[in-house]
Design brief:
heterotrimer, A: 156 residues, alpha/beta, Beta Polymerase, domain 2, 5-stranded mixed sheet, two-stranded parallel sheet, 4 helices, elongated, C: 148 residues, Rossmann fold, 5-stranded parallel sheet, 5 helices, 42% helix
């Protein structure tokens, strides 16, 4: 059994019903679609019991009907576990994971700046990556945001 | 800072309307750092958004220019992700060529770093020597790819240029010379007392902290964390090439220096092996203009550490989403930790030791004196001079070494 | 005043002092600028010195397409340089924005913000091209002096 298959089995044993939402497209790559309310348990399972100790990054996606966040976790044998959750488009929010990975702070700030996703539990701090005088409510990575609009509004 | 050391005052009159975009904010008590805040975003150009509005081929050119020092890393990482989605089997010869260019890039980057690190501590002849030697690898890269920087060698499905036997000979000649020079630099690093004293115990990062803070690359490996994408999650030709992952247990800037120097030696070995065992065959297969729907992660061991690209395709000729996490971003958390409770004089070399984007050196530093209302803004150059003078006061001085090395002739 | 101008111009020709500023570039041009100062190309033999402060500089050597965050600082550095001053835009991004033209956080070229005297294209501009550009700038100063 491959390493990824092993992980899929462990996930299936712990979280009934998750098996069909686990995809293994190639060696060392696992993609899991998690419901927002089961995310924390799966995340903790991955870190505490499956040995994933490195957060590569968090990817935000605007899928038009909703926003998605993919947490990319890695471990020594090179396996990447990618856990994806979806949040509503109207009031997008997620909980911070800096309690598990302090380094997540910068990736979460990116989600705030570029998508307008609220991250609960993120402390006060310098924004990233946009400038301080970037206009409010302009989220560049949203699909309906166009660069020229923002430039026209700034009068540049 | 309040004693006799002098340094430059903030440039120009302070306009209340124009805010200085500080790069670093330091809270200082006496000479010790209480905390550092790092402001980023100077280089934010909006590449991820731009990729969504460009075709895959256009995106490849823009991705390559995320960073001029590790452009091949970004380009290969991105191409790998796209090729995975499109189920393209890249020919072996192309993978081998990508590996050679990748290792040559590591060589130029580490030599560049060596010079910059030397400059930060006042060892300026090291800057001149290493950048002079670096020209050998720049020549090789220009020979193989047509450009010194931003090689443009990748295309989806392979590479655009082959390596002829004559070119391979030139590469091997250059590598021989560089290996001799690198041995000399290793000697300097491991035997010159001034260097050892200056770099030891500075920027300390324990193994546990390196893991906890998601450190990558030579910064992590110098704290004994054997993380290297080439071994853990092989790509290009690395699953077929014998090489060692270099780690060190010093957990400080000295360790990071040693790791990079030894990685240079490994790079020469890898380049020789790959050129000697280059398989015959095509250098590319044709790639479709439209990439079928799917997602994939490219992962690459850039000179500074793990580079990750997430790509989502939607069946058109433009990407749906491109997410890039360059290695420096991952290592910046560790820098804040390394600087806490340390001397301000250590700041330049500690930051330089994670090998950040070069443009960091243009940053302003704002310093808050804890316990008083005083605060000031200084330039990086001023902080660098302060560090050099501070250590001179402690008896660690590179003026002698600089003179000595300018006189020595290494052939 | 004329005589003083000629003396200043002459010393500027013999030893222009430069300040370097990166306005959000990928660092490709920046490392080629430094390579131009390193032993092989050695701009210093032309008397060119890299200075840390705009107050002592004659020439501002700029790379990058000017991101939003760097724009104000670029203007301030330019304003703090004494007259006469010259700006060299190094690299295609500095000339026109390069591949980043149209990107939302980018101004698309140095001359959208401050006047540029010399444009050195290239991605990146090679040290040879940089040398060529700087020499052309010095030559044009020389010609200016001869005219006067």
């Amino acid at each position: 059994m491959t390493v990824c298959e092993n992980i899929r089995q462990q996930l299936a044993a712990r979280f009934p019903g998750i098996e069909e939402r686990v995809k293994i497209p190639r060696p060392r790559r696992i993609f899991v679609e998690a419901a927002a309310d089961e995310f924390r348990k799966i995340f903790e399972f991955a870190i505490n019991e499956l040995g994933f100790n490195h957060l590569c990054t968090i990817t935000g996606l605007d899928e038009r009907v909703n926003f998605s966040l993919i947490y990319h976790l890695a471990k020594e044998n090179g396996v990447l576990l990618n856990i994806k959750i979806s949040v509503s488009h109207d009031a997008p929010q997620a909980d911070s994971i800096i309690g598990y990975f302090p380094g997540a702070e910068i990736y979460e700030r990116e989600l705030v700046d570029l998508f307008g996703i609220q991250i609960k539990g993120l402390p006060e701090g310098l924004r990233y990556p946009l400038a301080d005088d970037w206009p409010k409510d302009e989220y560049p990575l949203r699909k309906d945001w166009k660069p020229k609009t923002a430039q026209a509004q700034e009068g540049k | 800072m309040r004693d006799s050391h002098k340094f430059k005052i903030p440039i120009g009159p302070q306009h209340p309307a124009l805010k200085e975009p500080e790069g670093f904010s330091v809270a200082l008590r006496g000479e010790k750092i209480l905390g550092v805040d790092i402001r980023l975003g100077y280089n934010h150009r909006g590449i991820e958004k731009a990729a969504e509005e460009r075709t895959y081929i256009q995106s490849l050119y823009i991705i390559e220019r995320i960073c001029g020092i590790c452009s091949h890393s970004h380009s290969t990482c991105f191409a790998q992700a796209v090729e995975e989605i499109a189920a393209l089997e890249v020919p072996k010869r192309a993978l081998y060529i990508r590996t050679v260019i990748g290792e040559l890039e590591r060589v130029h980057s580490h030599l560049l770093w060596l010079g910059v690190a030397g400059h930060e501590i006042g060892f300026d002849t090291l800057l001149m020597y290493s950048w002079r030697d670096r020209e050998i690898v720049m020549d090789i890269l220009a020979l193989l790819t047509g450009n010194r920087v931003n090689y443009g060698i990748n295309t989806y499905g392979g590479v655009k240029r082959d390596i002829s036997p004559e070119q391979a000979q030139e590469v091997l000649k250059g590598v021989d010379i560089l290996e001799e020079r690198t041995k000399y630099y290793i000697e300097i690093a491991t035997q010159e007392v001034t260097v050892i004293q200056r770099l030891s115990g500075v920027g300390v990062l324990s193994r546990e902290d390196a893991i906890r803070l998601d450190t990558v690359g030579p910064t992590a490996r110098a704290s004994g964390v054997a993380r290297d994408v080439r071994k853990d999650d092989p790509y290009s030709a690395y699953s077929e090439v014998p090489f060692n992952v270099i780690t060190d247990d010093h957990c400080d800037v000295y360790g990071r220096t040693v790791v990079r120097l030894k990685e240079l030696m490994e790079a020469y070995k890898i380049i020789r092996y790959v050129l000697k065992n280059m398989p015959e065959g095509p250098i590319a297969i044709k790639a479709p203009r439209k990439i079928p729907a799917g997602e994939a992660l490219g992962r690459y061991e850039a000179p500074r550490g793990e580079d990750v690209h997430y790509v989502k395709a939607n069946g058109t000729e433009k990407p749906e989403r491109v997410k890039v996490r360059a290695p420096t971003l991952a290592n910046l958390q560790a820098v804040k930790h390394m600087l806490k409770d340390r001397y301000l004089a250590d700041m330049p070399i500690v930051i330089a030791a994670i090998d950040p984007c070069f443009s960091c050196t243009d940053r302003m530093i704002s310093i808050d004196y804890s316990g008083s209302d005083k605060s000031e803004a200084i330039k990086w150059e001023a902080l660098r001079s302060y560090g050099i003078e501070w250590y001179r006061g402690k008896g660690i001085d590179f003026s002698k070494l600089n003179k000595e090395f300018s006189r020595r002739a290494i052939s | 005043m004329k005589t003083i101008d000629r003396v200043i111009n002459w010393s500027r020709l013999k030893s222009p002092w430069i300040i370097h500023f990166n306005t959000g570039a990928c660092n490709g041009c920046d490392i080629e600028i430094i390579a131009a100062l390193a032993p092989r190309y050695d701009l210093e033999r032309l008397g060119i010195l890299l200075k840390g402060t705009p107050r002592h500089a004659d020439v501002l050597v700029c790379s990058g397409p000017v991101t939003k965050q760097t724009e104000d600082r670029l203007v301030r550095i330019y304003e703090q340089m004494p007259q006469p001053k010259f700006v060299v835009a190094v690299g295609t991004c500095a000339c026109s924005g390069g591949v980043f033209q149209g990107c939302y956080n980018v101004k698309s070229g140095i001359n959208a913000v401050i006047p540029v005297s010399v444009f050195i294209p290239g991605c990146p501009a090679s040290p040879k091209a940089i040398l060529d550009g700087v020499i052309k700038l010095l030559a044009s100063l020389e010609m200016k002096e001869e005219k006067e």
